[in-house]
Amino acid sequence: MTPSNEAPGSYEALSSEARMLILNCLAAASKTVAELSKELDLHPATVRYHLKTLEAAGLVEESSREKGVRSGRPMVRYRMAAGKRIHGFPRRQYEMLSGLFLSQLREELGEEMLMKTLTEIGRESGRSTIKGLAARGQVTEWTPELFSKLFVDQTLREMGVIAETRELDQAHVVFREYICPFQELAMKYPREMCEAMDEGFTEGMCEAMGPGIEGAKIKCLGHGDPYCEKAIFWWEKAKASARDDMDALRQIKKKRKASA
User: Fold this and answer.
1) pLDDT band at 29, cuts 50/70/90?
2) Is the peptide bond before 90 cis (omega within 30 degrees of 0)?
3) Do the Cβ atoms of 223 and 186 come closer than 8 Å?
4) Are residues 73 and 101 in the same domain?
5) Are the C-beta atoms of residues 204 and 166 closer than 8 Å to each other?
6) How many structural domains comprise the chain?
7) Dihedral angle at the C-alpha atoms of 206, 211, 213, 215, nearest 10 degrees?
8) Which residues constitute the domain of residue 133?
9) What is the pLDDT of residues 91-136, one digit of tens each?
10) Quick one: which H or E segment has residue 202?
11) 209 closest CA partner among 149, 135, 127
12) pTM (2 decimals)?
């Protein structure tokens, strides 16, 4: 979920290296356009343009206005916006920390117990996500359409995941995730992140949505595919062909786990 104090539009605002550099400069002290221009070796007009973008996203604000020396026009000083958690700034090193935790857990728990523990962590996270969405959206019965709207279009986007629904009818939804928030870890630890935590997350979501709902992963970034593709089935409404598709996905899942 996106915290209430996180700046909206920060993903787009931080897509520019110049704007990241400006934020780096303003993290230590407030500065004027002229000071930023000199420090970053950028034209003042370029600095103003990027500052306006950062202001519009709520990441930067005016800290003071001082009387100008030459023209008499006020000289504006800028600073990072107070009280904002800026997604993606500064760049975090969670991958290294997570890797250390996984290594330590493997030593203490052993491989089998580690996988069970990570699966349950993912499952509980999936349950919690669906319960939270149901409460906020006042959902009394989950349908493929509601799942696509509230989870694929809303929740995944808030998590920074580029995703889209590829198939949708009354009995199932198939969606793709083109960016994984744990992609680096998934590439390095596919069994732990993909087979355990991610599949546990999907299982937990299905459990929380109600009986007769089952999910499966078709493609996986962590296993070399260009994106993650997942399917969620509502068994009572599924046609025979959909049931056959689900059985085939179960076999794929078993083979992937066996070869991991």
Assistant:
1) confident
2) yes
3) no
4) no
5) no
6) 2
7) 40
8) 94-259
9) 556 677 788 888 888 899 999 999 999 999 999 999 999 999 999 9
10) helix 199-209
11) 127
12) 0.61
